[in-house]
Design a protein that fits this description.
By secondary structure, this protein is mainly alpha-helical. The protein contains seven helices and no strands. α4 crosses α5. It is elongated and about 80 Å long.
């Protein structure tokens, strides 16, 4: 019977140890996959709503680009390409800008161009109610901005701090191991 494994026990052990060393960096690929699917879902919903709203259409397209970049970065990280992590952290900054921009636009819209239904509600219930609803709406958007700065900022940092680790790994790991890991990146 012929042995199906072309590498010996020492090489297998070296591959296993290298896999353990790079596990920290490979978490970025898993996070990118989750982000890509999540953002892609919101992009689809926004694009559907975008049939009736220009703002939703623009946001949907932006979200679709962010989702695509997450998948593209994930593929590159799995292939041990430092550029994948670069793309992912920058993509998170772009996502942050998209969300903050949307929130600022929404705050402006609520303030400068009140919804006709809100005007009717104000007329019906009094100016204090309309003002309260407007202030609460603005408060929600400000909270989203703060949450986005924290969450997307930390997500960008999560990707960025892995860049030196991947560079060190690539410098210190025998080329044959890196080649095998890159060849099996799609498994």
């Amino acid at each position: 019977m012929v042995d199906q494994n072309p590498i010996g026990p020492e090489e297998q052990k070296a591959l296993q140890e290298a896999g353990e060393q790079i596990k920290h960096v490979m978490k970025a690929a898993k996070v990118a996959a989750f982000n890509g699917w999540s953002i892609g879902l919101f992009a689809g919903v926004s694009l559907l709503i975008g049939l009736f709203s220009l703002t939703s259409l623009i946001i949907g397209v932006g979200l679709a680009v962010v989702a695509r970049n997450e998948f593209k970065g994930r593929t590159a990280v799995r292939a041990l390409d430092v550029e994948g992590l670069e793309l992912l952290w920058r993509n998170q900054i772009g996502f942050l800008v998209l969300i903050v921009g949307y929130c600022l636009w929404s705050i402006y819209s609520v303030t400068a161009r009140p919804d006709p239904q809100m005007v009717e509600l104000t007329d019906l219930l009094g100016s204090d109610t309309g003002q309260l609803v407007q202030e609460l709406t603005q408060l929600v958007y400000v909270a989203v901005i703060i949450g986005t700065l924290i969450f997307q900022g930390l997500n960008a940092r999560f990707y960025k701090v892995r860049i030196p680790a991947l560079k060190t790994y690539l410098d210190d790991t025998p080329a044959w191991i890196v080649d095998v890991q890159r060849a099996t990146a799609l498994d």
